[in-house]
Amino acid sequence: MSLLATRDLTIRFGGHVAVNGVTCSFEPGTLTAIVGPNGAGKTTYFNLISGQLKATGGSVSLDGRDLSGLPASARTRAGLGRAFQLTNLFPNLSVLENVRLAVQAAREGAHRRGLNLWSIWSDHAALTRRAVEILEAVAMADRQQVVVASLPHGDQRKLEVALLMALESRVFMFDEPTAGMNAAEAPVILNLIRKLKEDKSKTILLVEHKMDVVRELADRIIVLHNGTLVADGDPATVIASPVVQEAYLGVAREAA
């Protein structure tokens, strides 16, 4: 059973078709890499799934539920977690406060309770405990009181992963997660993604240009070109395809 699916997903900007009728499904326990040249429609496809863009046609469904008419915030509450190329955090709050707010948002979405002093105090304590647990999982417990604006780029990306965990996302969507990172920072994020893969109830989508990362992490690769799905399969088969190497991955074929 697929957890996430798109059917004939399409968006047009004037006369330009940026994503053209993409039908694809993604199963729990898998990491799918979405690759293709610049301008292929990869990030636009992500934006259509997560609700940042409204599709011209087609549908997005999560666990059989049609999300097509829902805004991005409602899709997040439904379980679609999106990490952006540019971090999307509360810069003037501490690391702990950012994660605690995400934990609170997830729990308020699950159930609402009447307010009283005891519930406010006990809930706050429980939220804090859960937030600290998540920060421990992403190796940031020692930075919980640091103001986010002062974090280095690599730590901000780690915090984004923590927020997706706090929101209890069922689908994790990473758009070039190591973009802008130095050689010391990138392995930390990749290790976090490896840990997420261990949870076979989650589905992970990854837009990534670095083919060494794709080869190592992906269970499956789909290739977009001019907004159209042109290849879909296991990494070895897709990467070895001459037409994909030449036209979509920028690797010239050897002369005959």
Structural account:
With 256 residues, the chain is of the alpha/beta class. It has a single domain, classed as Rossmann fold (3-Layer(aba) Sandwich). It is built from nine helices and ten strands. It has helices at residues 42-50, 72-78, 95-110, 117-137, 153-166, 186-197, 211-217, 235-240, 242-247; strands spanning 4-13, 16-26, 31-35, 57-62, 65-66, 80-83, 171-175, 203-207, 220-225, 228-233. The strands form two sheets. The protein has a six-stranded mixed beta sheet, sandwiched between helices. It has a four-stranded antiparallel beta sheet with strand order 2-1-4-5, covered by helices on one side. Strand 4 and strand 5 form a beta hairpin. Helix 3 (95-110) crosses helix 4 (117-137), helix 4 (117-137) crosses helix 5 (153-166) and helix 5 packs parallel to helix 6 (186-197). The longest helix has 21 residues, at 117-137. The radius of gyration is 19 Å and the shape is globular. It starts with a strand and ends in a 9-residue tail after the last helix. The relative contact order is 0.18. The model is unreliable at 111-121 (pLDDT under 50).
